[in-house]
Amino acid sequence: MAMTSCPPECKADAAAEARNATLKRATLQGAKRWSSAHEARPAVFKWITRYTTRSRHSALGYLSPIDYEQQTIDRALLAA
């Protein structure tokens, strides 16, 4: 029986699940209980902002997105 690869939706789901697990571990798990979604939103927003701008990512050579973008811009300017 031939093995089939995972469809694109499967990979997107896996990435979302991994990100959600990281969010829960870092922000929500046992550290605090909010009485409403309105109270939880600022903490989640803060985490998302930090994760998407400052956290180092293996896909970016363990650079933060901001550092990776700056490095890419610097390389492009040097090549021009």
From TrEMBL:
Residues 9-65 form the Integrase catalytic domain. It comes from Streptosporangium becharense. InterPro entries: Integrase_cat-core (IPR001584), RNaseH-like_sf (IPR012337). One of its GO terms (biological process) is DNA integration. This is Transposase InsO family protein.
